[in-house]
Structures are given as C-alpha cells and as structure tokens.
Task: structure prediction
Amino acid sequence: MQRIPRGPRSALGSALCAAATCASLFALTGLIVRGSWLVMTWLIVVVVAAVVIGVRAVTRSWWAPTLAGTIVAVGIVLVRYGAPPGRLQVLPDGDSLDRTLATAREGVAVINASLVPMVGVRPTELLVVVGAVAVFLLADLVAIGLGAPALSGLAFAGLWAPAIILGFPASGWSIAWTSLFYLLLLALSAAPPSAHSDRGRRAGVAVLSALALIVATLIAGPAVAAFPGWATMSMPTFGTGPVGPMSLSDDLDLRESLGTRSGQVVLRYSVTPVEPDPGTDPQPSPSASDSSTVSAGDVGPLRAFTLTTFDGVQWDRSDSLDLTTWDPATLLSSDPEIRGSAPDAERGTLANVQVEVANMRERRLPVTTFPRTVDVSGAWEYDPVRDEVVGRRGTFDGMTYAMQVEIPSLTKEDLADAEVGDPDDGGATLEVPQTSRTQDVTDLAREVTADATTPYEQAMALQTFFRATTNFTYDTRVAPSRSDDAVWAFLQSTRGYCVQFSTSMAMMARTLDIPARVAVGFLPGESDRNGSFVVSGQRTHAWPELYFEDYGWVRFEPTPAVQTSAPPRWADPFTGVSAPDSQPDEVVPAPASSASSSTAPGGQSSSTGTQDEDQAWLPVAITVAIVLAVASLGLALVRRRSLLRADLTPERAWLRARRRLGARGVTWTDADSPRTVVASVHEQLRQAAGAPLTGTSAEALESLARTVERERYAPVQPEVDPAVLAGWVDEMMSGVETLLSDRSRRGAVPSAPRDET
Result:
C-alpha cells in the first residue's frame, strides 16, 4: 500500500472521495425520484468532508479524521431527523436518538412497501444520507488514512448495489463522473511527491490517462458489445422493473409517520355526460354547473374500501361474508332507498365513467362514492353494508370497467335538517374505543359543537375545527405516542396528515352519536389534456363519512385545504367562493410489517410541505454553522501552536529549507542530490559571507540532508518527529542569518584564499 502524503495532496484526495461519493448517488435516481434528498445528501457529505480535511491538516493520526467526521455526521443527522415535529432544534436532546431510530425504521418499512421509482421522503432520505456518509468515511479512511486508494472503489460500489440488484440502469454520466474521480484518486496516489521539474508533466499524464480511459470506455463499450458473443452476455439480475403493483393498506396506524407514495399510474379514466332523453327536462345538479362539461371533480373521489373498527391507535378490518351479485344496469349505493334502482337524471346529473386499471393490484374495485352502476367482467361481488365491490382475484394491469354515476343534487340546505340515520350495521359505526382519554375526546367534541343544534351543524363544526390552520397543521411526521389514545395524542400535538384528521373527526362524531367511518381511496385524477384523467399513487387519501337519514353515507373533508383543496359542495361553508388549487400529497400509512409483497403505503407523501422543508433546513444550517465556527476556531488555535510541526515530513522540511534559503540567495537545482546540496550551501555562504556554516547550524543542515536521502533511497523510511525536522530548519536558518547579517555589517567582500607560503 502506498500512503498518500499529508498536506494539500491529502486534502485533494479527500475531496476526490467526496466527489466520487456524490457522483455515485446518481445511481439511486433510478430508484428514487430526484428531489431535495439528493441536495441534502450532497450538503452533508461536503460538510463532513470539510471536517475530515480540517482535522487531517493538524494531525498525523490515521483514524482521528474519520472519528471526527463520524461525530459531526451523527450530530447533523440527530438534529435534522431527530427533532420533535414542528419544533426548531439546533442541538440534539435526550430523545433525538430515539426519534432518529424511529424514523430509520419507518424508512425501512417505506422502502419495503414502495414501488419504483419511489419519492425521497424524510425517512428514506435519512437512510440515503447515512449510507452516503458511511461510504465517504470508509473510502476516505481506506484511500487516505490507510493509503490503499484502489480499495476505496469497493466503498463507492455500495451506492450502486441497490440499482444493480433491482435491475434499474443508471445514467451513463453518473458512471463517467464516478469513474473520473476514482481514477484521479488513483493517479494522485501514484504521482511522486517530489521531482519538481517534471511534476506538471506527470500530473498531466495522469489526468489525461484517466480521461482517455473513460472516453474510450464510453465510446468502445457499445461497439464491443455489438460483436457476436459479447452481445449475448449479460450481468446477473436479481430484480426487475417495479417491485410490484400497488395495493392499499387497510391496517392504518395513527402512530406511524407518513412514508413514501408511488408515482406510478394506477388508474386512467374518462368522464362523459349522459345526454338526457328527448322530452325530459332534468334539473341540473348543483355539483355540476354544466352537464355538458362533467369532470373528474364532479364525479368525486374513487373509494376502494371503508374502515369501521378502531381500537384507539389502529384501524382493523375483516372481510365480509355477506356478499351478493348485482345487476350491472342498476345502482349500487350506500342508500338502501336508491340501491337496485335505475339511474335517474331527476335526482342529479348522469355521467359515464370508463376506467382502465394500470399498475394496481387491489381486491376492492375503486368506485365513486355517489350512486353508480358497475359493469365489470370477472368474479366480483357487492358488499351492501360497506358499499364495496369485492373481487376474488383483484384488479390487474389492462383491466377495464364502466360506471354510470348519478351525481346527486345534494346541498347544504338538504342536510341542514337531516336526522342521524341507522346504517343497519349493529352499531359498529357508533363504537368508541375505551381508553384513558376517551372522556377527554368526548368533552372536546361537545365543546367544539356547543353551538350546533343539528347533526349536520355538528359535523360542519367538527370539519371547520380541523380545517382551521390556527388549530391544526398538516405534517407528514407524527411524534411517538405516549398515550393509549392516538386521537387524543393528535389533538394535543395538532400536527398530522389525512389519517389523523379523518380518524379524529370520525371518533368525535361517534361520541356525538353520529355513525361515522373512514374511507380510503383516490382523490380525483389529473387531466392528461387528452380528455382522460390520470390517478397515481400520489392521489391516495383517507376521509370520514357520516350517515344521515335518507341520504346514506356522506363524505366530509377535515384534512386542511393545503392538501385537499375545497371540501364537497354540501360541506363547504363558502359555497361559490373558489378555493386555491393544490396538489394532494397523501397516501395511507404502510403496514408496520411488510414482506416482499407489493403493498404500497397508504397515507404517505413525497414531501412534508414547503413550510416544513424550510423549517427542516433551518436547524441543520444553524448546526452546520456552529460546527464549522467551533471547528475553525479549534483548528486555528491548534494550527497556531503547531504551525511548524504539523505533518512535517523530511521532503516538506527540505522544501521549506530550500524556499527560505532561496529567499537569502542560496539556491540549487533538482539535479543536485542532498549531499551535493550541503557542499553547495557551504560554498555559496563562503562566497557571500566569507565563511561556511559551522557548529549546530552545519550539523542541522547535514542531518536534514541525510534524512531526506534516506527517505528517497533507503528501503526503510525514517521516522523523524516533525518537531525535530522543524528544529533543524530553524537552526540552519539561524546560522545562515547570523553569517549574512555579520557580513552585511562588516561590509566585507568574499574572502580570497590565503597565501600559504
């Protein structure tokens, strides 16, 4: 192993290790959608690299820089990923480690449950940051600390392993940049530290050789692969394409933070109005201002399933055995008065919906919450209690089905005097889990609805309470619950996402004797500008449904508008006032344990919101500034005390002596050996000052020359303390200064040899 010398060369070596690490991160962009996670990882790697370079500048220890970098990296990680939700934290506290470990476990669960490409949310970002920092520290330790730069390539390969194993190609440019930095690191280790006369030539050859090798690989690779034999060879693959089709989770845990969501398309559908029969004059639906322009927003969200049983922290679900067949020409609805009848334009606007399934595997068919007919091929049955269409085998890519939706003319006025209905479920949707905080939740529900006189007014009071930004904040992170009642924990923290909002409203409605359940499905799709609407995993959502007499299950929207836009028309207190458009960014939380199956997390988001991201950057920036300020002060103090000794090698001491002597007019060339330099220095001083070096100054010059000679040519490198080397240089220069100063004061001229007669 050849050790890279300290000083600027070691700093350059560490910088190349950091650059190769950052370039290797591009290998993950095929697995994770490029976003803030990449920039954050780069930033942390650069900061850690700066710390490592600074520490190595003041110590000769091979392990101290790595230890310092590890400590700083741990501090940054604890500050960014271990901070309490919604609170600014500059320094880690006692619970930072627990919160960081919880986030890491969440990241593992998210990765196991996600599709490729997944979105780089905070939990997965944590894992990437830790992995990248570990790769850099290992590569730097091996290449610079242990002097084995060739082996550092194994560390860089660690960031390429996931893409290789899953069979996702990386960008050719990422391979080129990683290779370039790695080859430059090898060239740096091979370049001699001395030989000043041809240093530029050697460095140029090393750089050009590295560039030529990369260019040759990129150009010749495809050509070589085209030859017979090579074209039939391939690397072994351990995975292919997407990990699997998306499937919604139905065991929602309110204690779980938001993870990732799939960016892949799960549904495509078109919406067209049904032309009224001649001679009829149907009343237009208020929910669709113009029947000729019915859109996805008019059809509303597509619900996959509903949840009824809640134990205080988690929703649970068991499949129903009471399933029936149905007539594709009649309506399926949660309202038994409408169920089984034909669509009627007098009750609302009729629209045809043609759906094509993409990358989704789901046993429950996503259907609108409104009354609808369903025409689907295969073994599908209907659950009238839950208003679900359930299949034996589930959906598959390319599957199609059709609905004719009856968009109701439901208004606030219709529900204003509506009574609480009986969903005929044996009271299941009125059950409230008995916890240590059940009474607190009940009291708060009564306080919020104190001024309401009807069930609808109570429901609206609850929805307004949750949607008020002065009361609650949409946040993808959930603080660890220390209560057996996750609803109460959310009400106290006032931060959560769709599952927390919908569950809390449903439970508080139940305490008011209003039947309530939570539905899980997809918000309306986005237009593809070709007449169709596209639904991706990014649109998954959870919302509460309350039961009213004569109207069945009615959807409400307690999640803040920043994620869901305006609530339904009948639940919008500002009907007629346009709400700002927004992009929902939710999915339902992933199950706690996930195998290699392709279950997508259900309430998880690709981002924590702009405000939260800004807040997340602030403590990291402050912490980095503090670390750099303290490190700079410490390095300055240490550097000041050991300026002449730090990492001083014989060659560097020789170079220092040469520069200082050159400033006094004493010079030599690279062709001179250390022995000839000693004689040359004595001779030049004799000519300039009338006498050569003597005493301890001469001994210092000779000792330094012998040490340099041994370092260059002896099989065993000399071990000389840097302080001794610095002392030799100082002692030699002290003698030189004395000679030249005395000569200047005497005004002497070079002495001529004495006549010895």
